[in-house]
């Protein structure tokens, strides 16, 4: 099954993101329930490996992480496909990411080497933007590019199964780890 591991966003970050999305009239906004920070995209993985990963995550000493959103940007170069809110890459977030990757590898799940650029996808853009939509996107970025939030605490990591559909992906939670119960004093 197609799967990924996320750091679930606190409501204090979701609310400003959905307000921001309301002002966007280009592309398809990511539904509120699908807003997350991907820690590891796993691709196609067996159910047994995901079970091992869930046990591995539960066995790690993970702690809640403070998250702050800092600015908007695009992935895709000259033909952007994703509009995202950047997440400040704090040492705690980087440590959490490394521990999740450790658990992924221990579960026997192979991953390519990708640079960790923490972000929250807020909209998917059409493959081809006409001049009118390019202007609207440029105006949106000009008005909202400095978007930021105060820090908020993320308290859970979830493994999701993902099903791609024409109307947008469906993400089903498979296992979740409450970081508050794992924090060491």
TrEMBL record:
Broad enzyme group: hydrolase
Entry-linked InterPro entries: Cyclic_Pdiesterase, RNA_CPDase
Motif (HXTX 1): 36-39
UniProtKB keywords: Hydrolase
Catalytic activity: a 3'-end 2',3'-cyclophospho-ribonucleotide-RNA + H2O = a 3'-end 2'-phospho-ribonucleotide-RNA + H(+)
Coiled-coil intervals, chain numbering: none
Residue ranges annotated as motif HXTX 2: 119-122
Active site location: 36 (proton donor), 119 (proton acceptor)
EC number(s) recorded for this UniProt protein: 3.1.4.58
Record-linked PANTHER family: RNA 2',3'-CYCLIC PHOSPHODIESTERASE
Role this protein plays: Hydrolyzes RNA 2',3'-cyclic phosphodiester to an RNA 2'-phosphomonoester.
Family statement: Belongs to the 2H phosphoesterase superfamily. ThpR family.
Protein's recorded name: RNA 2',3'-cyclic phosphodiesterase
Organism listed in the record: Maritimibacter fusiformis
Gene: thpR
């Amino acid at each position: 099954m197609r799967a990924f591991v996320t750091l679930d966003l606190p409501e204090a970050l979701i609310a400003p993101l959905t307000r921001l999305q309301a002002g966007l009239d280009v592309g398809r906004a990511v539904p509120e329930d699908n807003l997350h920070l991907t820690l590891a995209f796993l691709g196609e993985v067996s159910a047994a490996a995901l079970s091992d990963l869930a046990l591995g995550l539960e066995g790690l000493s993970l702690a809640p992480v403070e998250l702050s959103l800092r600015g908007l940007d695009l992935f895709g170069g000259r033909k952007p496909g994703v509009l995202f809110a950047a997440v400040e890459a704090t040492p705690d977030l980087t440590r959490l990411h490394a521990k999740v990757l450790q658990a992924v590898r221990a579960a026997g799940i192979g991953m390519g080497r990708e640079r960790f650029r923490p972000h929250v996808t807020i909209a998917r853009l059409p493959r081809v933007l006409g001049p009118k939509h390019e202007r609207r996107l440029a105006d949106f970025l000009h008005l909202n590019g400095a978007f930021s939030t105060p820090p908020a605490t993320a308290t859970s990591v979830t493994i999701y199964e993902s099903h791609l559909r024409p109307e947008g992906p469906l993400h089903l939670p498979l296992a979740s780890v409450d970081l508050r119960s794992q924090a060491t004093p």
